[in-house]
């Protein structure tokens, strides 16, 4: 399954920001890639960090999650409301992959499967994106590549490129976004631009995006602020694929199950 570990890679540190990861969530193509992509990079000798939301249906005892006190305790302010950020950590059994969980009772008490059906999807994505970046600042770990997998991570590229562009922990990283077919189809919150606004990101700076925010606009924001785009599954909506193919970012079409070497070579190509 994984690529040749002797393949020469230019980057050494890769941050994976995932919507879901098996075994903490049920097996889907998205959750499997949440595990396999970091494993692939690790097998190639890269140092990795991995994040995902602490969805409400994750059994903390069974998964052996525990809170990291030194990373928890800050608040993320969204639309003038404070939301406490809790960081938990666990290791995937029989691997060397450590997973950091972004937790907040208000946003993630629901199960992962309820996500696309509720009307706070965007605010949860905002909290998740900013929570990951703020935690990276505390970790003081600077990745060469930041790989976002799944729609919950789609706002990360925007925040890194525009709100945290002067933050040395993340501002030199190449950003890769993987697109999947498993995306919410419901419209997001009506005042999403006001909620996204932070530092140099303003409602005015988001004027090119539709006011009626759908997942297409969320994907467009990720694509516009990424250095590389990967079609990570079959069945991705044609309108999103077209945006990706016409963007200035490098593009990797769907490679099938044998993705290992292709992903590592794609990461490398971003440094050419």
Task: Jot down its keywords.
globular; disordered N terminus; 272 residues; two-stranded antiparallel ribbon
Task: Give structural notes.
Helix content is 31%, strand content 19%. The chain has 272 residues and is of the alpha/beta class. The strands form two sheets. It has a nine-stranded mixed beta sheet, sandwiched between helices. It has a two-stranded antiparallel ribbon with strand order 4-5. Helix 7 (215-224) packs parallel to helix 8. The longest helix is centred in the middle third of the chain and has 19 residues, at 121-139. The chain starts with 12 loop residues before the first strand and ends with a helix. Mean pLDDT is 90; it is low at 1-6.
The coarse overall form would be: globular
**Share in β-strands:** 15-25%
Query: Compute the gyration radius: what is it?
Result: 17 Å
Largest sheet, spatial ordering of strands: 3-6-7-2-1-8-9-10-11
Q: Which spans of ≥5 residues are poorly predicted at pLDDT below 50?
A: 1-6
Question: Termini distance?
Answer: 27 Å
Look at the helices and sheets and give the structural class. Answer: alpha/beta
Q: State the helicity in percent bands.
A: 25-40%
| H and E order | EHEHEEEEEHHEHEHHEHEH
Count helical runs: 9
- Total count of strands: 11
Tell me, rounded to a whole number, the average pLDDT: 90
Q: Let me know the largest β-sheet.
A: 9 strands, mixed
